[in-house]
Design a protein that fits this description.
- By secondary structure, the chain is an all-alpha fold.
- The chain has 2 domains: 67 residues; 77 residues, no CATH class.
- Helices cover 75% and strands 0% of the residues.
- The protein is built from 7 helices and no strands.
- Helix 1 packs across helix 3 and helix 4 runs antiparallel to helix 5.
- The chain is elongated.
- The chain starts with a helix and ends in a 10-residue tail after the last helix.
């Protein structure tokens, strides 16, 4: 075999190897995005919107949440603890008819306390608690966000936080 042919074969092999590596990298990145979209559902769309349509920035944010909170394992409640939370939830629901604002405020406190009791970040760190909850309960976190927003608006003097009964 001539030297020119050997060099040509080496160049062809190198080009094919680089092209394969690039395709694998690109494929892995798109699967990562699809996995995040599946895992986070509506929270994925919310993150993309918050980043003005920049999916890479949204995916970096969501991947960071998974890295920080993905290993978190919710601890089960003791039966007595569970009963106390259920009783408070029932009382908040019953109060809603006569005092919806107070009931929503109690529901917000209850959700934050319950998440803390289950091992999520403390309710005093709302954004971090929300981030952790979004990793494990992404399809429910928007409801928590809405309750919190209404409760906070009411606490700061707004009549109903922009939400009706």
């Amino acid at each position: 075999m001539s030297t020119g042919l050997i060099i040509a074969l080496i160049v062809i092999v190198a080009v094919v190897a680089v092209a394969a590596a690039l395709l694998m990298q690109r494929s892995r990145g798109s699967r990562h995005g699809v996995g995040l979209k599946r895992r986070f559902g509506p929270e994925y769309d919310r993150a993309v919107a918050r980043h003005d349509g920049d999916t890479k920035a949204a995916e970096r944010e969501l991947a960071g949440r998974v890295e920080r909170h993905g290993d978190l394992r919710a601890r089960p409640l003791e039966p007595a603890e569970r009963e106390r939370y259920e009783a408070r939830w029932t009382a908040a629901q019953e109060r809603f008819v006569d005092s919806p604002g107070d009931a929503v405020a109690e529901a917000d406190r209850l959700l934050a306390e319950l998440a803390g009791a289950r091992g999520f970040p403390d309710g005093g760190q709302y954004e971090e608690q929300l981030a952790a909850l979004s990793v494990h309960h992404a399809h429910h976190v928007e409801g928590y966000r809405r309750v919190h927003r209404v409760a906070q608006a009411r606490a700061h003097g707004a009549h109903d936080g922009g939400a009706g009964t």
